[in-house]
Each structure stands twice: as C-alpha cells, then as structure tokens.
Amino acid sequence: MQRRTFLTSSLIAAAAAAAPFLPARAAGSLPYDDKGDPFAFVVDLSNAVLERIRGSDSLKSGNIDALRELVDGIIMPATDFTMMTRMTVGPKWRTATKEQRAALEEGFETLLMRVYAGGLSAVQDQKCELRPTRVKTVRPEMVIRTLLTSGSANPIALDYRIYQAKDKCWKIVDVNIEGIWMVENYRSQFASVLSQDGVDGLIKLFNEKGAELAETMKKKEASK
C-alpha cells in the first residue's frame, strides 16, 4: 500500500486522467514553473500535489471526480500521457489505428485512476526534495532524482523521467519508485495480452479491469 500511495501522490495518477481537451490556463496559474529550472519544476509539482491531497477529504477518500479535478488542473499540463501510453504499449502502438490509440489512452486512464485513487488516504506529512547531487546539468532529456521524506517513515526514492517539449515546457513521461519504472512495469504486465490478443485484447482488458475496480469502489463507498 505504501508503494502504491507514494506512486499516486508522486504523479502516476497524473497519467491517469489525460483528457483530450483541457481549458486554456492563465499564465502563472500553475504552482510550478514548467519552463524554468527542471529540478524545481519536479519538486514544486510534487509538493503541490501532496499539499492538495492533504487538504482534501474528497481526495483522501478516493473520490474520482476530485482526483480528476486535481489531475486536470495541476498534473495533466506537466505530463505527456500519449507518450506514456505509447511506451507502455510498445511496438504494437505503431500499427494501432487512430481509434485504437484513443481507446488505449482512455482505457489506460481509467485503469490507473481506479487503481491509485484508493491509496491517497495515507498521504500525511510527506515532502518531496532533491537527492543530494553535485551535478545539476540541464539537458533536453533528464532523470530528476528525488526523495519523498516523512517524519514517520523512511525516505522513498523517486526518479522522474522528463523531457523538454517543442514549446519549451517540461513534461514527465515516467516515474521510478525504488527501482521500479512505471512504464516498464506495466509494459511487462500487458505484453502477454498484446502478444495473444493484440491491441483490441488490451483495450478489452482495460475496460474490464476498470469496470471491476469501479464496482469495488462503489461497494466500498456504500459500506461507509
């Protein structure tokens, strides 16, 4: 549960709510500078997410609408979910139709939202900070290494893979929690389905798992 919780609060849920169209945002409205220092960008974004979760009973209870609002408002602008999905699907993405790609993104979104929403209640005093390093060279593609610290638990190592898009904004495309990269982890889980049943088989799996998790959450909510 601890791994899942920190994974969520550290932007994996960001990938989960990739809406195809988002309202325009006012300049400076985000709690981070996505065109400035990439190290500060990652730390400020992570801490903004943690702070929002701490201050919201709806988020802590796993409310999907509250999580979607958080993602759309703060996290989604900082991620490249299409690239995340493409890397997770692997070579099959190249032969997928436009409609299949859209369905893959939507299905992956639903799965991640349902999986990670349940872990937010454990967010307490966690804070993101950079791991000590002498080298802070800025490159177009980088891995930013951080620690999620807490007064009541051991630090959690988190690495963020980011790149600078054409508009000069930094985008997160993968997260590593204590040696486990999200994209690689999910790609290995989906490989057999893609091999046996192809893209349509993975879309079907996403839809089935999403429905199962939604039903579980509905029963959990009804039992409160």
TrEMBL record:
| Protein species of origin | Sutterella seckii
PROSITE patterns, from UniProt? TAT
Keywords assigned by UniProt, alphabetized: Signal
Q: Where is the signal peptide?
A: 1-26
Q: What is this protein called?
A: ABC transporter substrate-binding protein
Keyword Signal listed = yes
Tell me the Pfam families matching this sequence.
MlaC (PF05494)
InterPro entries for this protein: MlaC/ttg2D, TAT_signal
